[in-house]
Design brief:
This protein is of the alpha/beta class. The longest helix is centred in the C-terminal third of the chain and has 17 residues. α3 packs parallel to α4. Strands 3-2-1-4-5-6-7 form a seven-stranded parallel beta sheet, sandwiched between helices.
Length: 170
């Protein structure tokens, strides 16, 4: 089963995480608080691997402690590597968190980084990276955000060249 690590997936990226689950991905969501949609408790990893319609797996983690976040995710992965990383991490934590989880990624795992303000920095990881810059939306912000991120996921999984996509109010 393919595994996605979604950093920042409990808020605006919850739809992206849900779509990946619906497509058969095992999705791991590290965050401080448990999202309503996530699975938790004893045996969660076993339950996640048994059914195609499982929920994302939540692990307690905080961006302020990147090494502990990575350790919690690594424990949950049980020796498996991450095949896709989607990250919407506040700029002050971004490099530390991404470098902390770097060793958990498969060599060819695509990365999708999401930003809300320019300038967009260079990718932090050596993996092929799709970047999404979100604009301000008067309507349908969650829908448009998830659509833009899922399009970037598809570009990454198809092996397209790294790129920056600006999703704005047009």
């Amino acid at each position: 089963m393919r595994t996605a690590l979604v950093l920042g997936g409990t808020g605006m990226l919850a739809g992206c995480a849900g779509q990946l689950v619906a497509r058969g991905w095992r999705v791991v969501l590290p965050s401080r608080t448990q999202p309503l949609m996530a699975d938790d408790g004893p045996g969660r990893a076993a339950r996640a691997s048994l059914s195609r319609g499982h929920r994302p797996t939540w692990v307690r983690a905080d961006w302020a402690d990147p090494s502990k976040l990575a350790a919690e995710v690594e424990y949950e992965l049980g020796g498996h590597l991450v095949n896709l990383l989607v990250a919407w991490v506040h700029s002050s934590y971004r490099v530390g968190v991404l470098n902390a989880v770097r060793h958990l990624l498969a060599e060819d795992a695509p990365v999708v980084e999401v930003y809300t303000c320019a300038p967009v920095p260079d990718p932090a990881l050596p993996n092929p990276t799709q970047q999404v810059l979100l604009g301000q939306f008067a309507h349908d912000a969650v829908l448009r955000t998830n659509r833009a991120v899922l399009e970037a996921v598809e570009r990454g999984l198809e092996g397209r060249a790294p790129s920056l996509h600006h999703e704005d109010a047009r």
